[in-house]
Amino acid sequence: MKNVLLLLKVGLKSSFTFNGTRRKRRIKAGAVGATAALGGLLFMAVVAGYGLMLSTLCDMANTPELLLTGGLVLGMLMSLITGIAKTPGSLFAAKDFEMLSALPVTDSELFLSKLALVYSFNLTGMGSIALPFALVYGIKYGASFGFYPALIAALLILPMLVGTVSGVISLFISRISSKSRAGNFFMLVLSMAFIVLVMIGSMSMSSVPEGDMIRALGNFSASLRTFVPTGLFASSVLGDYANLLLLLLLCGVPFGLFAALSAGLFKQVNIAFGEKRMRGNFKTKRLRKIGEKSVSGALFSRELRGYFSFYGYVMNTGVGALMALIFTGILLFGGASAFTESISPDVGETVVLPLFICMLCFCGLASPPTAAGISMEGNRLWILRSLPVSAKDIFAAKLKLQLMLMWPVSVICGVVAALVLKTGVLGAAAAVAVPMAYALFAGLAGLVINLNLPMLDWKNPMVPIKRSASVIVCMLVDFAALALPTVIYILTGVNFLLFAALVFVIIIAASAVMWNWLKTGGSRKLYSL
Amino acid sequence: MLEISHLTKTYKGGKRAVDDLSLSVAEGDIYGFIGRNGAGKTTTIKCVTGIMTFDSGEITVGGKSIKEDPIACKRMMAYIPDNPDLYDSLTGVQYLSFISDIFRVEKAERDRLIEKYAAIFELTADLGDVISAYSHGMKQKLAIIAALVHSPKLMVLDEPFVGLDPKASFTLKEIMRDMCAHGCSIFFSTHVLEVAEKLCNKVAIIRDGKLLKSGEIGSVKGDESLESIFLELNDDGDRK
After folding, report:
1. In this complex, is the C-beta atom of B133 within 8 Å of any C-beta atom belonging to chain A?
2. What ipTM is given for this predicted complex?
3. Coil, strand or helix: which one is A95?
4. How does pLDDT run across A87-138, given as a tens digit for each residue?
5. In what order do the strands lie in the sheet with B64-65?
């Protein structure tokens, strides 16, 4: 047990903290950690604010419990999506499996520590949404003293259920992928497919067909009461504490079964992923089939291969493009009204175009691969620095990756939005050009920030992607670049197309400034890292 | 081919890794660069290859300054590091094609050279596998082939024999001799003094970033072995 706790502690530390050995590094790591914690608290505050708004509607529909059950369902969905994205890499294709299995710990200790790590991810994902909703309920409706301990107990129990569902899906994905030579690619495609399925399923669930919102909320609340996990959760925190036992049985038994099932496969699947497949059958005649590339083509091709060969990199940075396509799908098949319902029930159709463009921009800004692009070179940075290529070519190749991910998606989504919303030529231009400009901005900002906050001494490639200062700062800068014009637009209410044109010009100008810096200061920086 | 004049490099924190170092590598030279761990060999090599910037001094390759025209300099040279960290996600042949594309090696020529050197280093059958599956020695061999595939005029190697099996080590020495016979210049660091003694026509001994002795191997070692000269120079330095 001591070993399990030690392994869990190391796993949690490497997942959630920002280590630093020297004093300066520790200060930097502390600042980044504090920023991340602040970001988390802000997120929970926003969720609580959303809960408060929902509570007004719940009052009107006389369904206060919807705050509890609705918050839980949202938390479970969030946890399920992140669970499907994270569990394969954490449990079945763990990057540190070989290193940890060389330690004097048993396989079961290693497995239990990994399972506990997955549980903690699920707990964090679910708690960050379900807890603020429940707290709003508790404060607004003056819940009894027993409500809070029961809530904590229930929130500790429920991640087991989500962990089981995401774990079974991940096991399925990992088993199939580990048998293939292109295992990473399979794992990527299957994970994305499951995430899309979950998101589409959850969105269709939230698109309430009834026209009367109050009646719809009532029906929704009633259906959530009949859904066993949410029903048990609500009743147990509201005084029927015996139901906590039922909840424990409902979540604990499948989790235990899953643990027993996957314990046997844990080592097998991890070893299958870790085994290097050597064919040793290359024939020189295959050389003739390999074409020549230009310098920029060769650099880009290398970026592309490196990117798609790493599951964690794609899952953490490709989500923006995926989200944009899902939202566009909703708009295409459900029309403007389906889109507004999926955002907020009280949004009118006149603001769909600005909202949709804003969402596309948000997707383009969400974790660009360039934010970790330089860090990902790690100890192989010598190759690029020793080659006869300019720093500008290197940056351009990295930028192209972001543009390749987001520009086609921006064009498709923008054109679809323009056609569905019948925006006219100017509206279509705004729907395409503004998200493209933001995608460019995010890519360049990622490079600039990463050059100034590089992390090259990693052992696990997930570290620079998930926990580097560069990624966090880049996210904050990008979101600020979108939030600022959004707030100004809401406050001033100026003509949208005119405002969009102005934002486009500013974003392009900022991008030009960054590109200019990359060619001069950025180039010097690259060789002084 | 390679001129290093008064090279000085100080790291952040104040450690002077290379201190006023000057040497010259002519066409056809096999120039051995020897020194203890931390003497400044790798730092010098990284400055020469343009991987690292330096504080003062000048480095020219084929008459061109690495500071003024780094791309032209790099186009003339190949670098093999002491620890070949290559792109794990690429296959061996993809990596060689990438290097060939960057150096703009013509298709027919690259195919011929890849075929030739892969056969020499017995790596042909493994070229289709991803580099992450390669052993240290295989990666080292791949890095050597990548260096040879664009027929450089200057090869800069940092401990090139570390990790190579005896046969590959012998083959590399033969290739180095053959290349220098055809006008290429080689500048390499090594700990193995016997190798330097047998392979090089010139050597330089570095200690604490300063050049202790350099020139034709005969004039450096005189009648003694390179090992005894090396130890003697370093012991003198320790006493000071």
Report:
1. yes
2. 0.88
3. coil
4. 777 777 777 777 787 788 888 888 888 888 888 888 888 888 899 999 999 8
5. B16-25, B2-10, B56-61, B64-65
CA–CA distance, B86 with B63 (Å, rounded to integer): 30
In 3D space, the residue among B31, B46, B48 whose CA is nearest the CA of residue B81 turns out to be: B46
Contact B159, B45 (CB under 8 A): no
Q: Which residues of B touch A459 (CB under 8 A)?
A: none
Cα A167 from Cα A356, distance rounded (Å):
33
State the angle between helix axes of A183-206 and A295-308 in degrees (0 to 180), rounded to the nearest 10. 70
Report the Cα B90 to chain-centroid distance in Å: 24
Comparing A83-87, B33-37, B109-113, which segment has the lowest mean pLDDT?
A: A83-87
Chain B, nearest residue to A277 by Cα: B133
Query: Using an 8 Å Cβ cutoff, are A113 and A8 in contact?
Result: yes
Residues in chain B closer than 8 A to A305 (CB atoms): 87, 89-90, 94
**Percent of chain A topping pLDDT 70:** 87
Q: Which two tokens stand for residue B208?
A: 């604490």
pLDDT, chain A, mean: 82
Whether residue B47 contacts residue B55, with contact meaning beta carbons closer than 8 Å, is answered with no
C-alpha closest to that of A373 among A440, A291, A468: A468
Contact between A325 and A410 (Cβ < 8 Å): no
Assess contact for B7 and B47: CB atoms under 8 A: yes
Strands B202-207 and B210-216: antiparallel
Q: How far apart are CA A192 and CA A125, in angstroms?
A: 18
- Which stretches of chain A sit within 8 Å of chain B by CB? 276-282, 284, 286-288, 290-295, 297-299, 301-302, 305-306, 309-310, 378-380, 382-383, 385-390, 524, 527-528
Give yes or no for B71 touching A (CB within 8 A): yes
- Give the mean pLDDT of A459-470: 81
Q: What is the pLDDT of residue A365?
A: 87
Strands (E), A120-230: none
- The structure tokens 């979540």 sit at A251
Rounded distance between C-alpha atoms, residue A519 and residue A516, angstroms = 5
Nearest to A175, CA basis, from A75, A55, A92 = A92
- Give A417-456 pLDDT, tens digit per residue: 888 888 888 989 999 999 999 999 999 999 999 999 998 8
CB B34 within 8 A of CB B203: yes
B101·A385 Cβ contact <8 A: no
Average of per-residue pLDDT across B25-35: 91
DSSP-derived letter for residue B65 is: E
Structural element, H or E, at residue B18: strand B16-25
Q: Which helix (H) or strand (E) holds A129?
A: helix A107-140
Q: Does position A21 have pLDDT exceeding 50, yes or no?
A: no
CB–CB contact B53 A527 (8 Å): yes
Q: Is the pLDDT of residue B15 over 70?
A: yes
Bridge-based pairing of strands B2-10 and B154-158 is unpaired
State the pLDDT at residue A340.
63
Partners of residue B74 in chain A, C-beta under 8 Å: 386-388
Q: A275 to chain B nearest CA, in Å? A: 8
How many CA within 13 A on the CB side of residue B204? Answer: 24
Question: Beta strand pairing status for B56-61 and B64-65?
Answer: antiparallel
Residue A278 and residue B129: Cβ atoms within 8 Å?
yes
Across A129-143, A306-320, A386-400, which has the greatest mean pLDDT? A386-400
Side chain identity at residue B116, one-letter code:
K
Residues 6+ apart with CB under 8 A from A360: A324, A327, A410, A413, A414, A417, A431, A434, A435
β-pairing, B185-190 with B30-35? parallel
Q: Which two tokens stand for residue A198?
A: 């979950």
User: Which residue's structure tokens are 């404060």?
Assistant: A139
Largest pairwise CA distance in chain B: 57
